[in-house]
Amino acid sequence: MRRWILAMVVALALVAAACGGNDDAESGGDAPSVSTEEAETEAPAGQDAEPAAAETEAEPQTAEPEEGEPEPAEPEEGEPEPAEPEEAQPEETAPEEAAPEEPEPESFVLTASFRGVTETEIKIGVGFVDASEFGIDSGDIEAQWKAAIDRANDAGGVNGRLLAPVFASYSPVDDAAIEAVCVQFTEDEEVFAFVGFVLWDGVLCYTELYGFLAVNTADMAPDVLERSGGLLFTAQAGLIEKISGLVNAAAGDGLIDGKKIQIHASADDQTLLGPVQELVEAAGGIVTRAVYGTATPGDLPAGEAEADVWIERAEADGADAILAFNTAGYGATGAVERAGSDLVVITDSIARAGYIDLGYDPSQVDIYAYGVPTLQDLYNAGVAGVAECVENYESRSGNVVNVNVPSPRPNNLPATIRACRGVDLFVAIATAAGPVLTQDSFLEAARGLGSFDLTGTTSASLGNGKYSADNAPLVRLFWDSETSNFVSGN
Length: 490
Known about the structure:
Helix content is 32%, strand content 14%. It is of the alpha/beta class. It folds into 2 domains: 109-239 and 376-473, Response regulator (Rossmann fold); 240-373 and 476-488, Response regulator (Rossmann fold), CATH 3.40.50.2300. The strands form 3 sheets. A 7-stranded mixed beta sheet has the order 7-6-8-9-10-13-14, with helices on both faces. Helix 10 links the parallel strand 9 (344-347) and strand 10 (367-371). Helix 2 crosses helix 12, helix 8 crosses helix 9 and helix 12 (386-397) crosses helix 13. The chain is globular and about 75 Å long.
């Protein structure tokens, strides 16, 4: 049922952004140690060294003691008189050793090291979705990407090379247009990498067909990552990891263990039903059914009728909850609302447009929605670089980002943050690759990258076998009827 929920999928993707070695310097040589032995002092010239010579000097007269006072004791024979204290002589010190010179910084010469990489630039193909045909207004998307790229270039680019973007847009449902942009970037422009936003398996044109690098900002299914052969990286959380977080969060709220669960998936996610069932059962849940959409793409009435049948079967099976992951939560919520059912809906489908545009009201359903804190929450809290990304775009474009605005039009906050995330991810890997930038050095850098800063999340990392960057844990979100959006509890 890929097409009938297409507008919802697009909306979800558009909100998805909400969403050394130890270099101790070696010493240049140990300083010579100072001797602890004292040198013997010689007698002053013209003075006999024998003690008897002192007897020739007049002894000082002492006052006679008054009557009643004890006489001072005579020094015992052979006992030396106290010597006058000698003036302290300064100790000899070793000559101060000159500090080692600071090593000169290593210099390198940038060269045209790979396709799309010159001495001064890195050409990237920036592709993004134009969803205006679905009534979705995300603002000036090209300007959002340009602002993020200009900020990176003003900060020095990638090891001295500047990002040189080639822009193109396409409809999210036009496979021919998506492929045409891929051919433009790979054959005509010969870019170093694709950086942008493309849904579903459209990214395979770059990775599987042409063997190009791709840095995407959309959720990627596990099979797409696998087919990409290590050439695909996404700023989002991995889908299986995200669903695991969903199950864990719901289990923490007492919604899984010992409960009967019906699992819903979209047609595109049907291959995930088995792994998700294993996650639910591992958390103590009892899976009654695992279903996925089969309605003709784009046929909304047929899709809703199918979901209504599933809810009837869930009631008949005595299910306690519906777990609808990725994009399936929108249709499940609508079906539970239409049935007037008290079934709990557990979902990570949190794009407002997926409910509002289809007339579904989450406030009428016992819904447990989970996700990362919203972009507005992160903006208001001044964390995760969201405010900085917004301010950068506004100052460079002259446009205003609608933050904390009910039913914003354009709804340009998610798309603005997505552009910053895509540029962040590419720059982090390419910078770690060093001055000799090639496809192999890029991949090697990604395998050892570790943690890094990524706009819109409090935790991000890449590593060997880890291609999805966002690590933020899921929290429960609540539907705010006043703003028609999900907000975090805090």
